[in-house]
Design goal:
Helices cover 17% and strands 44% of the residues. By secondary structure, the chain is of the alpha+beta class.
């Protein structure tokens, strides 16, 4: 630092030094040749010192920029199953990464159909990603979500992702923390620009209870130039006390002081045999009882409710496929669950026979979309995609006596809509949902909304 300071001061007086030498030469105290040689030698030395100092400054500024700057990448891509917005930090050399997504939705009931509820206009969610890459193999990543515009009026703030990744090899990496379970299309990639319709498919909300996150650890990786990908985690099990006749959604523990007497395994494999074609499947298995005891309230009906929660071994599996080619998009998924101790669990939780928890639930959907924009603006980054989805979900597919299946939970959905992206990271959506069940037709719904990711 002392040399740098001296050099800087000398640079500041460079013109004075040259003038002094020239003056001495003029009055005969130094020959003109000496003055010229000294001036040239000093100039070269000063230039060399200046170049060295500037190089050090440039290197330091570049290092600070890499550590603290928030990058603006052109386009977003998924990494290891995570959503594209959540994957930005893995594309950095080092330092901080910030992203996020949000969506707003209006849902209206068709007025001339009985049994409908009030129309709802909802700032559905705003999620923020914050990640930091310490070096080329240690990454921390997180997602914090604000639902329904805050904690007032039924909204909430929650952590949906909090992981520490160790990037070791393409085929073997380690991950620990609050994990998104790798099941279905949307549990990991649920940013609104990456799925059709304003509402996520019901199968991926109630049978695969998106967004489903639990505490745990595991490994992941890819082979054959990323054409074969896998993820395997051990996580705390579900909480069977939250199960219901309509699905497993209430059994999620969400990482909040999760009961961990029972653990579970979840694994997934995807293959890409052809460009644009993805095939895969996943399975979850674990006990869900958590060694709990439910105390029935006074005057409980039925009188026998309450008691020790059974182990309730829970298996959920799904297979899926997706094709994207020449503007066409086809996606299909089928899921099924098997719950042990369903009769005992229903008795402990109580309720009417028609509200029994099923031994088996199943459901699936298929959807089609096509991008019309190339017909009008071939070189545009915008898209205009009409789509259709047919979905079948039965969370009462097999109910054991003395329970009785609820026919209203055997449901079919026809969703027809239009999706417009003025930018690849911004979407406007319009869709119409027709809902039918074995117990009768339910009110149709119209949804309008927008979403974004950055």
């Amino acid at each position: 630092m002392a040399r740098t300071s001296f050099t800087t001061n000398r640079h500041a007086g460079s013109h004075g030094w040259g003038a002094l030498v020239a003056l001495l030469a003029a009055v005969g105290l130094a020959p003109a040749a000496f003055a010229e040689a000294e001036d040239e030698e000093s100039r070269e030395e000063r230039i060399g010192d200046l170049e060295e100092t500037m190089q050090v400054v440039i290197e330091e500024i570049d290092a600070l920029r890499k550590i603290f700057a928030v990058p603006e990448e052109g386009g977003l891509t998924s990494y290891a199953g995570l959503a594209p917005g959540a994957s930005k930090v893995y594309q950095r050399d080092r330092g901080l990464s910030i992203g996020g997504y949000g969506e707003v939705r209006f849902r209206g009931q068709v007025a001339d159909q009985a049994g409908g509820s009030q129309d709802i206009f909802d700032a559905l969610r705003l999620a923020l990603y914050v990640g930091y890459k310490f070096n080329d193999w240690i990454v921390v990543n997180s997602e914090v979500e604000f639902e329904h515009a805050g904690t007032g009026g039924g909204g909430s703030v929650s952590t949906e992702l909090l992981i520490l990744d160790f990037l070791l090899r393409d085929y073997f990496n380690a991950r620990a923390g609050l994990l998104l379970l790798p099941m279905g299309f949307l549990n990991e990639i649920h940013e609104p620009v990456f799925y059709f319709s304003n509402s996520r498919p019901e199968v991926e909300q109630r049978l695969i209870p998106t967004t489903w996150r639990e505490n745990g650890a595991g490994i992941y990786g890819s082979f054959l130039e990323d054409r074969v990908r896998y993820r395997m985690y051990g996580v705390n099990g579900l909480d069977a006390a939250g199960f219901s006749a309509s699905g497993f959604r209430g059994g999620r523990q969400k990482g909040s002081r999760a009961l961990s007497d029972h653990f579970a395994f979840v694994g997934r494999v995807d293959v890409e045999p052809l460009l644009g074609l993805q095939l895969g499947g996943s399975v979850y298995y674990g006990k869900s009882g958590q060694n709990q005891t439910i105390v029935a309230p006074p005057g409980a009906n039925p009188p026998g409710m309450g008691g020790a929660v059974p182990d309730a071994p829970t298996t959920i599996w799904e297979v899926h496929g997706q094709l994207k080619r020449a503007g066409a998009h086809v996606r299909a998924l089928y899921a099924q669950s098997l719950l042990g101790d369903s009769v005992e669990l229903s008795a402990v939780l109580g309720g009417d026979p028609g509200e029994s928890i099923a031994r088996r639930m199943n459901g699936g959907y298929v959807e089609f979309a096509y991008d019309l924009m190339p017909w009008f603006l071939p070189d545009s980054e915008m898209t205009l995609e009409p789509f259709y989805r047919y979905e079948r979900l039965n969370t009462q597919q097999s109910v054991r006596a003395p329970g009785v299946a609820d026919p209203t939970l055997d449901q079919r959905y026809h969703v027809l809509g239009l999706q417009y992206k003025p930018h690849p990271q911004v979407v406007l959506k319009l869709d119409y949902r027709n809902i039918d069940s074995a117990g009768g037709e339910l009110p149709d719904e119209v949804e309008v909304g927008f979403g974004f990711v950055f």
